[in-house]
Amino acid sequence: MKFDTRQQKSAAITGRGATLNPAPRFADHEKVMTAGSEGLLDALAPDTWLAPEAARSILTKNQSPDIPFDRSINPYRGCEHGCVYCFARPSHAYADLSPGLDFETRIFYKENAAALLADTLRRPGYQCRPVALGTNTDPYQPAERTLGITRSLLETLSEYQHPVTIVTKGNLILRDLDLLADMARRRLASVMVSVTTLDAGLKRRLEPRTPSGQARLRVVRALADAGVPVGVMVAPVIPAINDAEIERIVDAAKSAGASRARYILVRLPHEVKTLFRDWLEQHYPDRAGHVMSLIRQSRGGRDNDPRFGHR
User: Which of 2, 74, 131, 148 has the fewest CB atoms within 10 Å, i.e. the most exposed one?
Assistant: First the structure.
């Protein structure tokens, strides 16, 4: 079915990041909203739907020179946190789902993750290097509270004396403080807490279903007090949106016990650029063009630069 994206009606939805539900890039159809279709956008953002995914492998390998690990695990596909800028959104296209609202309302979980990991670690010839958790979607998103996939992975890694690094926005990580503290004593665990903003209003618009910035700083303090090496990821940095907060965030993180800090400039691959532009028009119409201009200036005139060493 051919579709006309000009007919789409976009609007901010309380508790959701994306304002659109565009077709995945491999599809030939679109959920279309026409003028006057009030309420239809809400119908595209139902309650979160969870589905098991029987994975055949658990470790994702990479050879990127831009990141400090060569293997990762993502227990979940899709993320209810709803961060509009998330560079993992385009991965939903492989399930014929939209990177927009579908990404934050249609969540898949790898129910056999821990068993697959144990099988992998037992293989002859397996070479031990740190496994990164949370490289695409957050391992401590809301679904983890009931499913416990991430905790089962940590229990397996602890049993096999295997090092792990974690990136998260979720304060649910404190549930696993017992495991992480024990692993840290054996020099097996470290954590980076993502703190994008300390502005509560911006947080609600940008990352609607995440803990507040202050709550994340309390996570930093609790991890540091428990002896878990912890740092802060100021990510993404968005020009003219949160870049003025960098020094404040780093200072607050240091006071909370963080030992290091990193940042990542916002990335807009594939459909994310469309979602982000519309989000800007909805929430910051007075500066939307300026923000995109600054991003292009930093990306060689493009919305996104995927090249190694540049992205």
Answer: 2
Q: Up-side HSE of residue 251: CA atoms within 13 Å toward CB?
A: 6
Question: What confidence category does residue 36 fall into, taking pLDDT thresholds of 50, 70 and 90?
Answer: very low
Write the CB contacts of 133 (distance below 8 Å, at least 6 apart in sequence): 72, 73, 74, 75, 139, 150, 153, 164, 165, 166, 167
Q: How far apart are CA 150 and CA 139, in angstroms?
A: 6
Identify any residues that bridge with 108 across adjacent strands, giving them in sequence order.
51, 77
Q: What whole-number distance in Å separates Cα of residue 195 and Cα of residue 170?
A: 10
- For the question of whether the overall pTM of this predicted structure is more than 0.90, the answer is no
Instruction: Give the model confidence (pLDDT) of 220-256 as tens digits.
Output: 999 999 999 999 999 999 999 999 999 999 999 999 9
With tokens 């910051």, the residue in question is: 284
Q: How many C-beta neighbours within 10 Å does residue 92 have?
A: 22
97-108 pLDDT, tens digit per residue, is 999 999 999 999
